[in-house]
Amino acid sequence: MSATVRVTVNVIVTVPLLATMSVSASPPSIRPPLIVLIVTAELDALGIRMLPRSLGEALDAFKADPLSEKVFGSSMFKAWSDYKADEWASYCNHVSDWEKSRYLKLF
After folding, report:
1. How far apart are CA 46 and CA 58, in angstroms?
2. pTM of the prediction?
3. Which is nearest to 16 in space by CA: 89, 63, 70?
4. On the CB side of 63, how many CA atoms lie within 13 Å of its CA?
5. Of the candidates 19, 32, 75, 87, which lies 20 to 30 Å from 62 by C-alpha distance?
6. Inter-residue contact 83 to 39 (CB < 8 Å)
7. Is the pLDDT of residue 17 over 80?
8. Secondary structure (3-state) at 54
9. Phi-psi bin for 17: left (phi > 0), alpha (psi -120 to 50), beta?
């Protein structure tokens, strides 16, 4: 397993993954830098990836990580993935109040 720790905000997913990782993974061998501002290339060189910025990106990361299916089992992994894919599709099709107030005045 890589030293990169992948965590999702959802507690139902996070707790079992972290519990399994704490038993099976060794801690990263890097120390945090003293300077807070780090460019993306430096993060890549250290093997550190940014957290997903959307549910869609988080779902892609969840499905790509073999630990997810190992921890949840095939049927729960598929059910959770399908449920979150439907949730993301619904979110993407929703027009927010902010979008309405910002863009409808243009017409």
Report:
1. 21
2. 0.59
3. 70
4. 14
5. 32
6. no
7. no
8. coil
9. alpha
